[in-house]
Amino acid sequence: MSEATLDARGRLTLPKEVRERYGDHYHIVQLHDGIKLIPIDENPLDALRSEFADVEKTAEELRQDARTAALDEAGR
């Protein structure tokens, strides 16, 4: 785990290892007990396409599978 401190102007500098691994753009999410930095890909649509490239089902099939699993889990 790394540590970072705000400077006098309120800027936070992330360690080089973090920037090299996750990039330079982040979405800041406020949680009840802190904050979370979510890396934003330079091209979000390409990132989504890559993430789901191996999915062979349609969106409707995925929805139906999720619905069936939820009903099974609920005991119906």
Automatic annotation (TrEMBL):
UniProt keyword annotation of DNA-binding present: yes
GO MF term list: DNA binding
Key words of the record: DNA-binding
Stored InterPro entries: SpoVT-AbrB_dom, SpoVT-AbrB_sf
SpoVT-AbrB domain sequence ranges: 4-45
SUPFAM superfamilies linked: AbrB/MazE/MraZ-like
Protein name per Swiss-Prot or TrEMBL: AbrB/MazE/SpoVT family DNA-binding domain-containing protein
